[in-house]
Amino acid sequence: MAAVEIDLGKLPFDVDFHPSDHLVSAGLITGDLLLYRYNADSPAQKLLEVKAHSESLIIANLICPLLKLDTRTAIVTGSPDCSVLATDVETGSEIVRLENAHGAAVNRIVNMTESTIASGDDEGHIKVWDTRQQSCSHTFNAHEEYISDITFASDSMKLLATSLAQLKQLSPMEFKLRTQCNDLNCKSSFSCSGDGSLSVCNLRSSKIQTRSEFSEEELLSVVIMKNGKKVICGTQSGTMLLYSWGFFKDCSDRFVDLSPNSIDALLKLDEDRVITGSENGLISLVGILPNKIIQPIAEHSEYPVERLDSEDGAKNDSAAEDSDTDGMDVDDNIPKSSKGSKKKNVKKGQDPGTSNNFFAEL
């Protein structure tokens, strides 16, 4: 499919593809949610425009993948107003809104399974929402600063998160338990935060399995590669940090010559290649182990790339602060392989452990 460019009119902060249809959603600085249908032969068609959230100045919040909630397909969004919203794709109507989903601004939402999502806020808290049980199933006080990114290891049911906060060390018993999970039998997630650390949240035990040591680098983005053996983090300085699975105390390798600008977004293309989005608007294809810049594939002028997403591994989409979202056919831009400063204001608020009845109205 040829490249598709959509003029959104306002600054976008996130984009997301429908997993099986030619639909793409975008979240704007105004708090508006847009949904478009696209194809190669005609201009993109706007299907939906709704005022999803009230705060319009610093809505740095994200559209997570379209989910099947009850019998309706929904887009789930978050906001600095601390709310989480599920919007009906067909009608644009509100399915359910949780006004106090978090005690601070929600700045990251990711889809985990067909019935679970995870959200992170400005105070380092992560919540997992179970749509079947219609409630918050897990709460992790993972970091001391904002959650900059979250990724989900589905085989192990672990969440990885990045932040700036320093992560605690494992006790000998925790290390033994973690070693037993190295075959990816434990359910966990990973997150990154503005406090310079990487955390591993185990969904089976409902505990923070481990945290990395404090890094002078501000961790902004995270992906899992090399068949689960490596975790890659993009940083404020433009360096990529590589962690070995099961050994998160410190990074095992650094890719230092990648970019002089921050790496705000990462998108895994396959187990050996990742697409990076930088503060200078450059989107590049990068090889991992061996670490090399394969080639630049697109750019958003001087505007930062806020988010990258992929339809099916072949089509890539990006959102930047130039009010455009660009879709490109990755296969047309890259060779075959043989084998976006992001400091958010922390908002103080109520106890994030309250209001766990999300989806109760579904």
From TrEMBL:
Alphabetic keyword roster: Repeat, WD repeat
Species: Anisodus tanguticus
Compositionally skewed regions (Polar residues) per UniProt: 352-362
Positions annotated as WD repeat: 99-139
Basic and acidic residues composition-biased segments: 306-315
Pfam families attached to this UniProt entry: WD40 (PF00400)
Name of the protein described by the UniProt record: WD repeat-containing protein 55
Gene3D superfamilies referenced in this protein's UniProt entry, alphabetically: YVTN repeat-like/Quinoprotein amine dehydrogenase
Chain residue ranges for the region called Disordered: 306-362
Xref: SUPFAM superfamilies: WD40 repeat-like (SSF50978)
InterPro entries per record: WD40/YVTN_repeat-like_dom_sf (IPR015943), WD40_repeat_dom_sf (IPR036322), WD40_rpt (IPR001680), WDR55/POC1 (IPR050505)
Similarity comment: Belongs to the WD repeat WDR55 family.
PANTHER family for this protein: WD REPEAT-CONTAINING PROTEIN 55
Biased composition (Acidic residues): 319-332
